[in-house]
Design a protein that fits this description.
The chain has no helices and 11 strands. The protein has about 120 residues and is mainly β. β7 and β8 form a beta hairpin.
């Protein structure tokens, strides 16, 4: 089973930008549908963005459309979440999720491999 690992979280001011990265170990990267989820304190985990195994299809939660961009590099075995125009309500732990599947998956129950998460904090 693959093991995702996130990096790139940190403290950023509102209106600023941050790029999260996710690397998979233990599998063939290009076979996996990938996604970002986030969880704020006291809240349920929520879908942020997803990308198909080829990178040709993406899906976004309404609250990040136009601000966040998901992408992947199947040569470098990396997935990214470019976060622009961040808001304090984007503060959460961001998780990378993976599933051996060609299409786009958006439900947390669809994924069987999860990273430990990376904290993103947006200050005013």
């Amino acid at each position: 089973q693959v093991q995702p690992a996130e990096s790139g979280g940190g403290l950023v001011q509102a209106g600023g930008s941050l790029r999260l990265s996710c690397i998979l170990s233990g599998g063939t990267f290009s076979r996996y549908a990938l996604a970002w989820f986030r969880q704020a304190p006291g809240m349920e985990r929520q879908f942020v963005a997803a990308i198909s195994s080829s990178g040709g299809s993406t899906s976004y939660a309404a609250f990040v459309k136009g601000r966040f961009t998901i992408s992947r590099d199947n040569v470098k075995n990396m997935m990214y979440l470019q976060m622009n125009s961040v808001k304090p309500e984007d503060t959460a732990v961001y998780f990378c999720a993976a599933r051996n599947f060609p299409g786009v998956k958006t439900e947390s129950s669809d994924f069987d491999s999860w990273g430990q998460g990376t904290q993103v904090t947006v200050s005013l």
